[in-house]
Amino acid sequence: AQSVTQLDSQVPVFEEAPVELRCNYSSSVSVYLFWYVQYPNQGLQLLLKYLSGSTLVKGINGFEAEFNKSQTSFHLRKPSVHISDTAEYFCAVSDGAAGNKLTFGGGTRVLVKP
Amino acid sequence: DSGVTQTPKHLITATGQRVTLRCSPRSGDLSVYWYQQSLDQGLQFLIQYYNGEERAKGNILERFSAQQFPDLHSELNLSSLELGDSALYFCASSPHGTVNSPLHFGNGTRLTVT
């Protein structure tokens, strides 16, 4: 069975400051990792994904994440946030089997302050 | 706009009742997923269909059922509703239902059971 832990439920951050959202996973098999963003009253939107290859993954809106197999982590970072980055962020894992069923973490709510 | 359409946007009903949630996937997507988002359980995978056939099953209650029709739209049926079924229900679609096919989420149906 797989599980995903997002260590911070809320992260307040000032505009133009950097932010890091932490994600740890557990799985007995190879995994594929994803970060999704949910803006208020909207569905989830894919930010980036790690399937294979380079462990540093770049996504949309200036976000990037690093896959660390030894630490079973996939932390999300952005060097300078904007007010528009205020949203909830979800880390997810898939073992690639059974049609790419995703297991999500509990989410991290990011509040960007001016 | 993800291209995934969910109706209705809001649904208020009483305990013991039955409701049907509808999802139209993005044009060309063969796979449909249903997720439940609640405050206490977070985002939970319910079920996945691929080209009309069930592909994967998650934490879906026996009171819940789903199907995907020949035109690829999907319906999620919830019966004998309980207060705890109140949640946001998301539909997502992907072209092939594999890990290389990212999920595109609809804006959800908010179900309130009173």
Question: Could you explain how this protein is built, in words?
Answer:
The complex is a heterodimer of chains A (114) and B (114). Chain A has strands spanning 3-6, 10-14, 19-21, 23-26, 32-38, 44-50, 56-58, 64-68, 73-78, 87-94, 103-104, 108-113. With 114 residues, chain A is an all-beta fold. In chain A, the strands form 3 sheets. In chain A, strands 2, 5, 6, 10, 11 and 12 form a 6-stranded mixed beta sheet that branches. The model of chain A has no long low-confidence stretch (mean pLDDT 92). Chain B is built from no helices and 11 strands. The model of chain B has no long low-confidence stretch (mean pLDDT 94). The termini of chain B are far apart. Chain B is 0% helix and 53% strand. In chain B, the strands form 2 sheets. In chain B, strands 2, 4, 5, 6, 9, 10 and 11 form a 7-stranded mixed beta sheet that branches. Chain B has a 4-stranded antiparallel beta sheet with strand order 1-3-8-7, with no helix packed on it.
Overview in brief:
Chain A has 114 residues and is an all-beta fold. In chain A, 0% of the residues lie in helices and 53% in strands.
Distance between the termini of chain B: 31 Å
Please indicate the percent range of residues of chain B in DSSP E strands (runs of 2 or more). over 45%
Q: Would you tell me the overall average pLDDT of chain A?
A: 92
Succession of helices and strands of chain B: EEEEEEEEEEE
Q: Tell me the span between the first and last alpha carbons of chain A.
A: 41 Å
